[in-house]
Design a protein that fits this description.
Order of helices and strands of chain B: EHEHEHEHHHHHEEEHEHEHHEHHEE
Distance between the termini of chain A: 23 Å
Number of strands of chain B: 12
Number of domains of chain A: 1
Shape of chain B: globular
Radius of gyration of chain A: 15 Å
Number of strands of chain A: 8
CATH architecture of the largest domain in chain B: 3-Layer(aba) Sandwich
Oligomer: heterodimer
Strand order of the largest sheet of chain B: 3-2-4-7-1-8-12-11-9-10
CATH topology of the largest domain in chain B: Peroxisomal Thiolase, Chain A, domain 1
Number of helices of chain A: 1
Number of helices of chain B: 14
Strand content of chain A: 35-45%
Strand order of the largest sheet of chain A: 6-5-4-7-8
CATH class of the largest domain in chain B: Alpha Beta
Order of helices and strands of chain A: HEEEEEEEE
CATH superfamily of the largest domain in chain B: Thiolase/Chalcone synthase
Structural class of chain A: mainly beta
Largest interface: A-B, 35 and 37 residues
Largest sheet of chain B: 10 strands, mixed
Distance between the termini of chain B: 17 Å
């Protein structure tokens, strides 16, 4: 799987995935939690004091769709894509196992190890 | 209300043309100018996208122009509506006199569209969304539909009516890709191959070549030209997101504020609108736009569109060309919403003409419900 390399702002987030730790960028000034990581806090505009704090790894399905046509040659279908609303507030994208899902279903983070030592979070029942 | 009018409008060749994008652009621009009774020598402003990285200089040089004003606002399917706003302001400010807004593509002939879309590696989405394999933009619209059904109890059957009605209009439009294809039924839509649930192939717009152009100038000049001027009465826009995870509520789009501002500027309400042209990249796109624009309350649009109300002769004349679903879809459909609105307001729409149309709304949507722009047009009769 091709996941582009981290950049200066996202490196800390990806580093934590090497230990299967799910983190979220958190503003030390105002407490705002955001994803994906950025060079500023979108709530208070602070560009300092941004750090990665361990997250619960829990959430609920916000919306989902079963993909029946491959986005690129060689990708096996069908598979399920979902927006996951994390317990801490941010919404993230994930795949889900199987097709039998409903909005509001609780999910937990799991990990798909990548060849370069990082891991991709994938949510499951 | 503004002091600017659309004085020319035209399509280029549509369908499967075998022509280059610049050939199609040239057709669109020269046909729209001919429609206005103008020539390239009258043009001092140019707005376009999708030609190349530097789209305005590419097209300007190709046409032999050195424009006084250009705009290449690159926001997908709402670009043409935003360009109408930009051009109107520039004309009113006296910076430019006559602007052509154009778009064309040969995506069907060139087989240039991919279900995965185009993702740039340096964007956050490339790291945090693309690895999961969403269809872009389709899976986002599919999730919006799923969320809308969940919240309001809507069904695929009810949503399918958007595609069924679009086909009915296309059967009246000789330029439509599906003209002569016969009617579409709700069962046809439901039985079509699923692409990204709950949306089937028949919930998705066509992939065709095509495009169009409109010509704008000041109202006092417009009165001397070939056709009665189609006045720009109002405009508004919103840009809400680039990723699939930024927007909290997928059922309410930026069309709400875009429309509210455009209608306020024009001094109208949805009840005053005779013709509504909204971007139907997918059935759900049109549904969410109609609702957000205020033609019904939250959760009501799938009931609003039933019982033939958006078919020819119904109470709400929607996407009278047949739309992206059944007429033509070269990508960035916004300019063709304007072309059809102009034809309806001039009374030139033939078998699909809406009687006595005086106010039309064109509403474009770009990206993944990312950009929203509304233009209100009107004629005196």
């Amino acid at each position: 799987m091709n996941v582009p390399p981290p950049d200066d702002v996202t490196a800390g987030w990806w580093d934590a995935t090497r230990e299967h730790r799910y983190t979220l960028q958190t503003c030390g000034s105002c407490g705002h939690v955001q994803h994906p990581p950025r060079a500023l806090c979108t709530a208070c505009s602070s560009t300092v004091d941004l750090g990665f704090v361990g997250a619960s790894g829990g959430g609920v399905v916000d919306a989902f769709t079963v993909v029946h046509r491959a986005p690129a040659p060689g990708v096996a279908v069908p598979y399920t894509i979902a927006r996951i609303r994390l317990a801490e507030g941010p919404i993230v994208l994930s795949t889900l196992d199987g097709e039998d899902w409903r909005i509001g279903a609780p999910v937990r983070v799991g990990w798909l190890d990548l060849d370069d030592g990082r891991a991709l979070p994938v949510f499951h029942r | 209300m503004t002091g600017v009018a659309i004085v020319g409008a035209a399509e280029c060749d549509l369908g499967s043309t075998g022509k280059s994008t610049l050939t199609l652009q040239t057709q669109a621009v020269t046909r729209a100018l001919a429609d206005a009774g103008l020539t390239l020598a009258d043009v001092d402003g140019l707005a376009t996208t999708g030609v190349s990285r530097f789209s305005t200089t590419q097209l300007a040089e190709y046409l032999g122009l050195e424009p006084r004003w250009v705009d290449s606002t690159f926001v997908g399917g709402s670009a043409a509506e935003m360009m109408v706003a930009r051009a109107t302001q520039a004309i009113e400010a006296g910076q430019v006199s006559t602007v052509v807004i154009s778009f064309a593509s040969n995506q069907r002939s060139a087989r240039s569209r991919s279900l995965g879309g185009v993702v740039e590696e340096h964007t956050p989405e490339a790291q945090f969304e693309t690895p999961y394999g969403p269809l872009y933009p389709l899976s986002y619209y599919a999730m919006a539909a799923q969320q809308y059904f969940h919240r309001y109890g809507g069904t695929r059957e009810k949503l399918a009516e958007i595609a069924v009605a679009a086909r009915e209009w296309a059967l009246l439009n000789p330029a439509a890709f599906r003209y002569g294809a016969g009617p579409l039924t709700v069962d046809d839509v439901l039985a079509a191959p699923m692409v990204s649930s709950p949306l089937t192939v028949a919930d998705c717009c066509l992939v065709t070549d095509g495009g169009g152009a409109v010509v704008l100038t000041a109202l006092d000049r417009a009165r001397d030209l070939r056709h009665p001027p189609v006045r720009v009465l109002g405009y508004g826009e919103r840009s809400t997101n680039t990723s699939m995870t930024a927007v909290e509520d997928l059922t309410v789009t930026g069309a709400r504020e875009s429309g509210r501002e455009a209608f306020a500027r024009a001094g109208i309400t949805p009840a005053d609108v005779d013709v509504l042209e909204v971007y139907d990249s997918f059935t759900i796109t049109a549904a969410l736009s109609i609702e957000a624009l205020g033609f019904c309350g939250p959760g009501e649009v799938l009931d609003l569109v039933q019982d033939g109300r958006i078919r020819p002769g119904g109470g709400l004349a929607l996407n009278t060309s047949g739309g992206g679903l059944s007429y033509c879809h070269p990508g960035q459909f916004g300019v063709l919403l304007l072309v059809e609105a102009v034809r309806q307001l001039r009374g030139e729409a033939g078998a699909r003409q809406v009687p006595d149309a005086r106010v039309a709304v064109a509403h474009g949507t770009g990206g993944i419900l990312s950009t929203h722009a509304t233009v209100v047009l009107g004629v005196r009769r």
